[in-house]
Design brief:
30% of the residues lie in helices and 23% in strands. The chain contains five helices and ten strands, in the order βαββαβαβββααβββ. The protein has helices at residues 26-37, 64-75, 95-108, 128-135, 138-155, and strands at residues 15-20, 46-53, 56-61, 85-90, 112-113, 118-121, 124-126, 172-177, 180-185, 212-213. The strands form three sheets. Strands 4-1-3-2-6-7 form a six-stranded antiparallel β-sheet, with helices on both faces. A two-stranded antiparallel sheet has the order 5-10.
Length: 216
């Protein structure tokens, strides 16, 4: 049982946010998640894993059933002294396509990440670039950019309505970080302010300065 009991997931939930008890790599997090849930080493009930910071993990599962199973397995032990996961809750987005689109939209606004997401399609790992081409349409990406632009305006206290992104979006290009290609749309948006995250994430954000800036 967790230290703070979480409500049940929505019937459409496919993603979870995990606050980690200590800094972890993506590989270490996956190993720990498999141990807690009893997954086989090559089992992939998820198709998207990303640690935007070393104490926060975002996981999208292949179905609501897999998401609920993991939620209940982790919920039993999260927050206990020996558990590498401190807390968890339902994710903000549903499906692989939405999680990829959110990642690309954040990149287009010059967000700072240490790692690229890990993505699987039909249990086979694929590059982020390939996954974005398969699942993220220009319309979907633009809708996420518009939402993030609106959040930025509200968090800054500006009285002006959020400015809509210029249309059409420029062609997809690739930025590099740590030797990997990140698919992203180059945006005309000015340097983005730090967006306010839900309170759940507030002490999971790594601000130690070791992150890689994705230059657009």
């Amino acid at each position: 049982m967790t230290l703070v009991e979480q409500p049940e997931l929505s019937q459409s939930a496919t993603s979870l946010l995990f606050k980690l008890a200590s800094k972890q790599t993506q590989e270490a997090f996956i190993f720990n998640l498999h141990n807690i849930c009893g997954y086989w080493p090559k089992q992939r009930p998820y198709n998207f894993v990303h640690l935007p910071w070393k104490q926060l993990a975002v996981v999208n599962f292949v179905s609501n059933e897999e998401c609920v199973f993991c939620f209940h397995m982790v919920q039993r032990v999260a927050g206990t002294p020996s558990c590498p996961i401190a807390d968890l809750r339902e994710g903000m987005h549903t499906g692989l396509h939405e999680n990829l689109a959110y990642f690309c939209a954040k990149c287009s606004m010059k967000s700072v990440y240490e790692t690229l997401p890990l993505v699987w399609v039909s249990n086979q790992e694929v590059t982020v670039e390939m996954a974005v081409k398969m699942f993220v349409t220009e319309e979907l990406l633009q809708s996420f950019v518009e939402k993030l632009t609106g959040r930025r305006a509200r968090s800054s206290g500006s009285a002006r309505p959020p400015r809509a992104p210029r249309a059409p979006l420029p062609e997809m290009k690739a930025a590099k970080t740590k030797g990997n290609k990140i698919p992203t749309f180059y945006s005309q948006t000015p340097d983005a302010m730090a967006l306010s995250e839900p309170p759940f994430l507030s002490d999971a954000v790594d601000t130690g300065g070791s992150a890689v800036v994705i230059n657009l």
